[in-house]
Inverse folding.
């Protein structure tokens, strides 16, 4: 069987999202720009640690950073977040088909009345 | 349509599908426990499944094949991790070689199936699928989407012809 080894882009996204602090950063920055300083006020960790989390999210292209004066503003990249959702949508279609067939087989098996 | 809910959690790589059927749990369970019934719905019409081995006891294995329109045959396996008939079944689902031996290079899914009695003597079926990685999910969908699409089309044809 030929399997296309697509670049593991989605894996990078999910690894980035596997951490609760990073998920929280994504949630906050979906609602608007936040400086790293403002973000770090929310977590019991150093500024450097928060900066590291932001860097992981940036590598996964889940957030973008831009400079404003001496500040770094972080903003969520909504498109990247949608990728994960899109993959699950396709998996859903496979199972919806299966459940259609399941219902048909169940109805026929019941008519047969053998059990 | 018997599906009542679909919950997708992109962060946990999990999808749960819920369906309700107007039949008691024992009947619904048979569609998993009877290999002849299972093979009628597991694969799409264009890739019908054949259950070669089918042992739903804990630690048991299922080995199945699916043959496509061009005679291409794909093998899959389940490893049963928990079973409590007729209410619960948990297994790992993956790709296999022709002998049924798991192919470690291809993705695996953890599936948890729960059957619950409903008030009117019917059954609620919950199927939770969890991917090990997003890469695996992409890979599996890349392989399965074409057959899924063809199946959906052929079912639509059947409905229109009926």
């Amino acid at each position: 069987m030929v399997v296309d080894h697509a670049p593991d882009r989605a894996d990078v996204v999910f690894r980035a999202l596997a951490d609760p602090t990073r998920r929280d950063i994504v949630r906050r920055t979906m609602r608007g720009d936040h400086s790293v300083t403002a973000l770090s006020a929310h977590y019991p960790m150093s500024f450097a640690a928060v900066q590291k989390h932001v860097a992981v999210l940036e590598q996964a292209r889940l957030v973008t950073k831009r400079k404003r004066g001496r500040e770094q503003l972080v903003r969520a990249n909504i498109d990247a977040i949608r990728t994960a959702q899109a993959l699950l949508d396709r998996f859903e279609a496979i199972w919806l088909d299966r459940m259609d067939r399941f219902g048909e087989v169940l109805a026929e098996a019941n008519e047969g009345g053998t059990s | 349509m018997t599906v009542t809910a679909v919950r997708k959690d992109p962060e946990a790589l999990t999808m749960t599908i819920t369906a309700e059927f107007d039949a008691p749990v024992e009947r619904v369970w048979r569609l998993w426990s009877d290999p002849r019934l299972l093979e009628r719905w597991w694969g799409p019409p264009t890739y019908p499944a054949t259950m070669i081995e089918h042992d739903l006891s804990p630690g048991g294995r299922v080995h199945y094949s699916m043959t496509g329109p061009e005679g291409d045959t794909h093998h899959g396996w389940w490893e049963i991790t928990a079973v409590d008939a007729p209410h619960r079944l948990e297994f790992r689902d993956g790709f296999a070689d022709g002998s049924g031996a798991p192919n470690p290079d291809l993705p695996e899914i953890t599936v948890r199936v729960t059957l619950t009695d409903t008030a009117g003597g019917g059954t609620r079926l919950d199927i939770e699928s969890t991917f090990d990685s997003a890469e695996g999910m992409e890979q599996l969908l890349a392989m399965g989407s074409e057959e899924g699409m063809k199946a959906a089309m052929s079912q639509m044809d059947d409905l229109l012809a009926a």
In short: The longest strand of chain A covers residues 63-68. The first helix of chain A runs from residue 9 to 17. The CA atoms of residues 40 and 48 of chain A lie 9 Å apart.
